[in-house]
Design brief:
Largest sheet: 3 strands, antiparallel
Strand order of the largest sheet: 6-5-7
Strand content: 5-15%
Number of strands: 7
Structural class: alpha+beta
Number of helices: 6
């Protein structure tokens, strides 16, 4: 239900199941042709079908006697915890996986993407700050310190990296700037590149300096 970070449907709660209609005259429609607009109308119609299935199959707890605690339609479920509608335009976004044995982080630059619930993300205006955070997250030193401390399990990463009190980016700090530079360089290199190993080792050394001098 999102186009260019704009909600394209109105939810009508006057009856159950809820119904949806396509919102009119949104700026997000400006570059669409008639065929694309027709597809959006079809999407709104399909959303109404999905809402009927949602109402039918979600169980006896959700009946005609809804109250504020359980009055959640399919749109509310998609936006659970405001995880969908809180996303917006950005200059730089750092994203990393929620689960796994290793942290895999990347910087996304001004792309029209939506992050799903299996990842964490943060927006930044400053490119170097974004790549600094990304570099810290991708460092072997951070993951080893998390494992050694007992904070990190093999399955759930979540927000645990930030329990290490990662320092805020300081453009006057030589080590911070170096981490950002290395992170940018590494983002364009494959692991097969002969420079990758040396630069990654240097990144680890810089990350250690940041995470031990606190």
């Amino acid at each position: 239900p999102i186009l260019n970070y704009a909600l394209i449907v109105d939810e009508h709660r006057d009856k159950i199941p809820y119904t949806y209609t396509l919102r009119k005259n949104l700026d997000a429609y400006h570059d669409l042709n008639s065929i694309q607009l027709a597809l959006l109308e079809n999407y709104a119609a399909k959303l109404n079908e999905v809402e009927k299935d949602w109402e039918k199959n979600r169980g006896s707890k959700f009946t005609q006697n809804k109250n504020a605690a359980n009055a959640m339609g399919i749109l509310g479920r998609l936006n659970y915890g405001n995880g969908l509608f809180s996303q917006h335009y950005y200059n730089y976004m750092v994203v990393y996986n929620e689960n796994g044995a290793r942290i895999r982080s990347a910087v996304v630059e001004r792309e029209n993407v939506i992050v799903d619930y299996t990842s964490y993300y943060a927006y930044f205006d400053d490119k170097n700050e974004a790549y600094y955070i990304c570099g810290i997250l991708n460092s072997n030193y951070l993951i080893n310190k998390l494992v050694a401390s007992g904070i990190l399990s093999e399955r759930h990463i979540e927000k645990k990296p930030f329990e290490m009190s990662i320092l805020k980016y300081d453009k006057e700090n030589i080590t911070h700037v170096k981490i950002a530079e290395l992170s940018i360089e590494l983002s364009s290199l494959s692991k097969d590149n002969e420079e990758f190993g040396n630069k990654y080792k240097e990144l680890d050394e810089c990350a250690e300096k940041c995470l031990t001098k606190q």
